[in-house]
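Before a colleague's protein record goes any further, I have to sign it off. I want your independent view on whether this chain really folds as the tokens say. The record follows directly below this note.
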Amino acid sequence: MPKLPRASAKKILAALLKAGFYIHHHTGSHANLRHSKKQHLHIVVPMHSKDLAPKTIKSIIIQAELTVEEFIKFLKK
């Protein structure tokens, strides 16, 4: 498994949008996303100015039902 890259919330949000998610709503400093086809997927992304911690990124990847490789591919597009 490749090492998780350090990334800002904006880059992670952009990668998830490319993966088929859409912004359902914002609550404070958190963006709530849903998947357009897999309605059971619900992800919360903290919209902070600094890079997110690797554990937080890993949690988002698991919630999105993506592999690390797929996530990195969407992150680089």
In short: The chain has one domain: 9-76. The longest strand covers residues 21-27.
